[in-house]
Amino acid sequence: MAADEKAQAKGEQVEGKVKKIVGGAVGNESLKAKGQAEESKGDLRAAKEKAKDAIRPK
Predict the structure, then answer these.
(1) What is the mean pLDDT of the chain?
(2) How much is the average pLDDT of 8-18?
(3) Can you tell me the distance from the alpha carbon of 15 to that of 35, in angstroms, rounded to the nearest whole number?
(4) What is the DSSP letter of 9?
(5) 39 pLDDT above the threshold of 80
(6) Contacts of 53 (CB under 8 A, 6+ apart)
(7) Is the pLDDT of residue 1 over 70?
(8) How far apart, in whole angstroms, are the C-alpha atoms of residue 2 and residue 22?
(9) pTM here?
(10) Is the pLDDT of residue 11 over 80?
(11) What pLDDT does residue 24 have?
């Protein structure tokens, strides 16, 4: 399950970055803001997974 969550986090980060860049390029502030929010959501999900990995016994 952790691999699925990590992949989802990476997908959100990439999709958010693309939306942010495209929104900035075409001057669409709404799309740029949505991209930033999605990228942040992916960052948070990745941080959560990293914390779970650190806590998990080896």
Answers:
(1) 92
(2) 95
(3) 7
(4) H
(5) yes
(6) 2
(7) no
(8) 30
(9) 0.83
(10) yes
(11) 95
CA 2 to CA 6: how far, in whole Å?
Answer: 6
Burial of 7 (0-12, 13-18, 19+ CB in 10 A): exposed
> What tokens were used for 8?
């989802």
CA–CA gap between residue 5 and residue 29 (Å, rounded): 29
DSSP designation for 27: T
Alpha helices in 1-58 (DSSP H): 2-26, 29-55
Instruction: Spell out the residues 6+ positions from residue 44 whose beta carbon is closer than 8 angstroms to its own.
Output: none
Neighbouring residues of 8: CB distance < 8 A, sequence distance ≥ 6: 42, 45
- Residue 43 near residue 20 (C-beta atoms within 8 A): no
Q: Which amino acid is at 58?
A: K
